[in-house]
Amino acid sequence: MKTAPHYITKRLLLLSLFLFVLLLVCVFAGISLGSTGGGFKWVWNSVMGQTAADSMLNTIIWKIRFPRVIMAVLVGATLSLGGLVFQALLRNPLAEPYILGISGGSAIGAIIGILAGLSLFPGVSLLAFSGSIIILLLILVMSSGQSILKKDSLLLSGVIINAFCAAVIMFLISMAHDSKIHNIMFWLMGDLSMIEMRHVGYLALILLPCFVIIFIFSNSMNLMLLGKEMAQSMGVNIKAVTITLLITTSLMVSATVANCGLLGFVGLVMPHLLRLTFGSDHRILVPACVLAGGSYMVLCDLLARSLPQQGEMPVGVITAMIGAPLFIFLLKRSTR
């Protein structure tokens, strides 16, 4: 008879393999399709070295599309994983960095860095992280008079913080020079169009260690869902785990916001979908969020590039169009 650890390991490997293959298919589609042509056959021939290295289409595929698709993978994985962590720590199925205002705080810090003329890394990224931590502390203080685990107080705090962040962002935009306003507005809607491979490298250096840290604490999140007393009796240091995961998640989210702007509701859609599909074991859900979240964002970005007849729309428009109705449905369901 198979023991539970062996069963979990086998299930984890099989699901990870399946989702990794799905991610590869999405990445291949992402770099193959676009308004400037290409196609699956061209990309396959390019991978096999059967096309001219200096051709224009080859340059578009590997210098423009490929960095953008890999960035979409990292961003989707980060936001999905961020939503999963917040939902586990706060024991609230509606918790998510965008809804709680964490992304808005990161955006404020990033815009200040952009207006100050700082470099993306470390200047803008550091300010974005500082903004997310400040907003996180504000949310915890505002909801701590009752309990941060209470759904109503948490969501109310998030709504208030989001409104405050939106007001600050509008104030900062009103102070910007005309030449920067358009870029900031497009960036705020979630923009992957200006990504270069060096940006992908910087972000990967920040995110990959964070993914590992969250996976290490995945079983602790399982135990914390059973209740504070039960988790402590099983050896979980509640305070240390909570602080570590909150800071790690805030760092991940702020790094993605600094690079790509605000992408809403990804952390709401994917954890719910994966939880319904694979169950509530975070040892399974953490790698599932990384792989499936990356696939989801690649497909959203592909839609953002493909739907307009001319040009493209910000990918944040697609994620909001999918996520906002789901949020309303879940909110209505949770209040029954």
List the helices and strands and how they pair.
Elements (H helix, E strand, L loop, with lengths): L3 H29 L7 H8 L8 H35 L6 H4 L1 H14 L4 H24 L7 H24 L3 H11 L8 H20 L1 H7 L3 H6 L4 H23 L5 H13 L3 H25 L8 H20 L2
Helix pairs in contact: 1-2, 1-3, 1-14, 3-9, 3-12, 3-13, 3-14, 5-6, 5-7, 5-12, 6-7, 6-12, 9-12, 13-14, 14-15
Number of folding domains?
A: 1
Count the E strands. 0
CATH superfamily: ABC transporter involved in vitamin B12 uptake, BtuC
If you average the pLDDT, what whole number results?
Answer: 85
Using the alpha-carbon principal axes, give the shape.
globular
CATH topology: ABC transporter involved in vitamin B12 uptake, BtuC
CA gyration radius, whole angstroms: 20 Å
Distance between the termini: 42 Å
Q: Which runs of at least 5 residues are low in confidence (pLDDT < 50)?
A: none
**Beta-strand proportion:** under 5%
Assign a percent range to the helix content. over 70%
At CATH level 2, the architecture is Orthogonal Bundle
Look at the helices and sheets and give the structural class.
Answer: mainly alpha
CATH class: Mainly Alpha
Largest sheet: none
> If helices are DSSP runs of H or I spanning 4 or more residues, what is the number of helices?
15
H/E element order:
HHHHHHHHHHHHHHH
